[in-house]
Design a protein that fits this description.
The chain is 32% helix and 19% strand. By secondary structure, the protein is of the alpha+beta class. The protein has one domain. Helix 1 (25-39) crosses helix 2, helix 1 (25-39) packs across helix 5 and helix 2 (60-72) runs antiparallel to helix 5.
Length: 167
């Protein structure tokens, strides 16, 4: 785990709020990316369109992009950096956003995460339960993949030759 505590005074501020996420798998994945964006202080990796979970109507191409983004920011990749599986810290919620502060600089969650070749600053951490991850990432990703139509085949035109070679 990437969090270390040695200081005397550690502040923990709950910065989250309750929200209603539509049950569509695309909406849940968009909510997941919105959670990632609120933990990593960055907007350069994810277009706002893919975080607006109330407007989850996407084309197949956009859904594929959404799936790719979610795979890049998977919970497994972020675990121990800025996502922490901790039902105890979640208390009665399925996830919580926490800002950590200390009067002594002797505690740390990682300060930056390298994503897509660039550093992203960790603004806060998120703790979550198994049910939150299952509903908003694992199941949503599987359902979104199943909902896609297979990519249309690419047809190329072939030039026919009017000559014949006999050996």
């Amino acid at each position: 785990m990437a969090v270390a505590f040695r200081g005397r005074e550690i502040g923990v501020k709950d910065t989250g709020s309750s929200t209603n996420v539509p049950s569509d798998p695309r909406a849940r994945l968009m909510y997941y990316l919105n959670c990632v964006a609120s933990v990593l202080k960055t907007n350069e990796y994810v277009n706002d369109k893919y975080k607006d979970y109330d407007n989850y109507y996407l084309s197949d191409h956009e859904t594929r992009t959404l799936i790719g983004l979610c795979e890049q920011f998977s919970p497994s990749f972020l675990e121990g950096k800025c996502f922490f599986h901790s039902p105890e810290l979640c208390q009665d919620k399925s996830n919580r956003f926490l800002e950590l502060s200390s009067k002594e600089v002797t505690f740390a969650a990682v300060q930056t995460v390298v994503v897509l070749g660039r550093e992203a600053t960790v603004a806060k951490i998120m703790v979550y339960t198994d049910s939150w991850r299952k509903r908003n990432y694992d199941d949503a990703l599987s359902e979104a993949r199943r909902s896609l139509r297979p990519p249309s085949p690419v047809y190329t035109s072939r030039r026919r030759s009017s000559s014949c070679i006999i050996i």
